Amino acid sequence: MPQKMKRREFMGLMGAGMAAMTLHGCISKEKIAKERPNILWISCEDISPDLGCYGNTDVSTPNIDKLASQGVRYSNVFTVAPVCSPNRSGMITCMYATTIGSMHMRTKPSLPKYNPPGISYETVPPPYVKCFTEYLRAEGYYCTNRVKTDYQFTSPITAWDRNSRNHGDWNGRAEGQPFFCVINYEETHESRIRIPLDKDPIINPDSVTLPPYYPDTPIVRRDWARYLDNIETLDKRVGETLERLDNDGLSENTIVFFWSDHGRGLPRAKRLLYDAGTHVPLIVRWPVVIEPGTVRDDMISSIDFGATVLSIAGVEVPSYMQGHAFLGEQRGNPREYVFSQRDRMDEKYDMIRAVRDKRFRYIRNFQPEKPYAPPMEYADMMPTLQEMRRLSAEGKLKGAQKLFLQKTKPNEELYDTTVDRHEINNLADNPKYKDVLERMRKVLDNWMEETNDLGRIPEKEHMENTWPGGVQPKTAALTINPNGGTFDGSVTVKITCPTEGASIAYTTEEGEDSHWLIYTKEIKLTESTRLKVRAIRIGYAESPEVQADFVIE
User: Which helix (H) or strand (E) segment is 11 a member of?
Assistant: First the structure.
């Protein structure tokens, strides 16, 4: 009985018109399949574009390289934050972390270990901000995630059809239903470099090429080799996923994205706003539409990913979103600049902002009196950083190796990445680049003002604004309003919640593993059933569950 109603509801959603999609206008609409495509995100953690297809010869990545040869490889993709949670909150909402208040790493009460005293809250964006997957679900997509969220707020029940290791793929959807699926691989997380410490790298540490800002020691080479080992393990996982997609007969109508959540998990990369911390790989395979082997240098921000999924799915991108679609019918003009931020990292406060175009990166250090690398419990577990601190204390670091462990920072940094890809030579005081410096200053100032950068507010004041008194606001209880029976033996049910911005979910299934559907319009019941409903606004506590029994004769 409940299954029948779920099928009717889905078919009603699928009755919406299908929008044709083109890439740069070069493919005719007649060549595009009429059905909405499936979309698969293969995401990973803590890697820069250190892959064979991006020119790294120290590592073997045949599966990812093959994916790139079948689609488009983007060379100028940057994350809005150099660390997981602020960036992932931006990706799921298509909003800057500094706009919605998720810029500090971390805040949630469930992860208090590295929070400063008195800091415990979830991000509460403006009420109109939703997880972009809600818009897909409202149009009939089956949306799953396996399994990482880390959004700085509890993932709403309305964000995903399934969000678990056991159900986080395309299985379980209704026949013919398009899917959006996220599969996240943790093999490359920074913790996998240092644990277990007794594991010898597979790649020969003596054969790898180190950035010039690292001391060339066996410990540093070992960490770098392990980092590349983990990328090779990731490549095998990607190959397995793509093979399963092919075996299920889904490859031809599935658009595949491959990306990383920020740069490599090593010192002077993760947690800082250089390319090593924010420049990431992005590969997209779209059969028929994207010419195999394409390479593009469009400037793309990580908050653009979700808007692009909506665009290629034929779902209207909400006007409030700061993300720009770079594929599909709603594709806009390429960005000229991308922006990124660093605020509190675990227990240590700092505020840094950056803007980058295709050539230059400008960084502003709002607290230059602080070092780049203050003692930090989690980051200091990395053997490379321990080695650098030891050598610094002994006065044995030379040249660029000294940069990361300086006691203070310059007010401004400017790098010409075309000739200085490791961002070592600061041009901020070079008169030759005065015009560039002033241009980038102005661009950053305007962005901070236009996007209402909340990093300018002390965190405790920001917390009080969103969780007054340190207490989480609650989503109000829902109301179920049956509109009366009809001559055809049915009843129409309207569900309302007085909390502004709350999203509503409902189910007729029983048990803890019930499949909750997203409520978008009145529900027509044609059989006797028990209806269960819940609501949540992002950052708020979920409403009490409300149940109602309907007897239809």
Answer: helix 2-13
Instruction: Say if residue 37's pLDDT is above 50.
Output: yes
181 is catalytic: no
366 and 312 within one domain:
no
Q: What is the DSSP letter of 273?
A: -
pTM: 0.93
Alpha carbons within 13 A on the beta-carbon side of 300: 26
Give the H/E segment covering residue 137: helix 132-138
Smallest CA-to-CA distance from 271 within 374, 345, 210 is with: 345
User: Structure tokens of 35?
Assistant: 């059905």
Into how many domains does the chain fold? 3
Sign of the dihedral defined by the CA atoms of residues 390, 394, 400, 406, in that order = positive
Q: What is the pLDDT of residue 9?
A: 31
Separation between Cα atoms, residue 550 and residue 553, nearest integer Å? 10
Contact in structure between 3 and 515 (CB atoms under 8 Å): no
Residue 504 lies in a domain: yes
Lookup: tokens for 16: 């919406």
Query: Is residue 328 domain-shared with residue 357, that is, in the same domain?
Result: no
If asked whether residues 138 and 286 sit together in one domain, one would say: yes
291 in Cβ contact with 69 (< 8 Å)? no
Average pLDDT over residues 463-471: 97
Residues 75 and 104 reside in one and the same domain = yes
The CATH number linked to 508 is: 2.60.40
- pLDDT tens across 338-375, in order? 999 999 999 999 999 999 999 999 999 999 999 999 99
Q: Is the pLDDT of residue 540 over 60?
A: yes
Residue of 44, 53, 84, 143 marked catalytic? 84
Question: Which domain CATH number covers 213?
Answer: 3.40.720.10
Judged on CB neighbours under 10 Å (0-12, 13-18, 19+), 377 is: exposed
Residues 262 and 388 in one domain: no
CB-facing half-sphere around the CA of 114: CA atoms within 13 A: 15
DSSP 155: P
Q: Which domain holds residue 436?
A: 352-465
CB 75, CB 338: distance < 8 Å:
no
What strands lie across the sheet with 179-185, from one edge to the other? 162-163, 142-146, 179-185, 38-44, 254-260, 282-285, 72-78, 294-301
The answer as to whether 472 is a domain residue is no
Start-end of H helices in 271-396: 275-278, 304-312, 383-393
Three-state secondary structure call for residue 26: coil
Tell me the two tokens of residue 481: 């309003």
